[in-house]
Amino acid sequence: MKNYMEDVVLEVLEEVLQVNPDFCRCPKCKQDVVLIALSKIKGRYASSPVGEIFARVEQSDRQVRTDALLAVMQALEQVAAYPRHDGPTKLTEK
Ligand SMILES: [Zn+2]
């Protein structure tokens, strides 16, 4: 289940990044978005037993993708507001 959601989130993230050219492309920020998005989705599905989640995933992949898209977009905003990449000076791009 986790791997499945991770795949969906990664896919959705690439799509979202294409329409958000300003968002930082560094691995750290991307990873943060994935982690935040996954935790949001996990919260949403937490009340269902695993079997039910699988059933739901198979029945409505589209719904899962919609959930993932929402979570990724929220996560993106969160990371964009407080990027955690340290490392060398950020290329001035705002
Ligand atoms: Zn970054």
Give an account of the 3D structure.
With 94 residues, the chain is an all-alpha fold. It has one domain. It is 71% helix and 0% strand. The chain has 4 helices and no strands. The protein has helices at residues 2-18, 27-45, 50-59, 61-81. The mean pLDDT is 82. The structure holds zinc ion. Zinc ion binds next to helix 2. Zinc ion (ZN) binds at residues 24, 26, 28-29, 83, 85.
Descriptive tags:
94 residues; mainly alpha; 4 helices; 71% helix; 0% strand; binds zinc ion
Radius of gyration: 14 Å
pLDDT averaged over residues: 82
CA(first)-CA(last) distance: 36 Å
Number of domains: 1
Secondary-structure class: mainly alpha
Give me the number of helical elements.
4
* Ligand kinds: zinc ion
- Outline the low-pLDDT stretches: none
Any idea what the shape is? elongated
Helix content range of the residues, please? Answer: over 70%
In sequence order, what are the helices and strands, one letter per element?
HHHH
Secondary structure tally: strands:
0
Strand content: under 5%
Major sheet details:
none
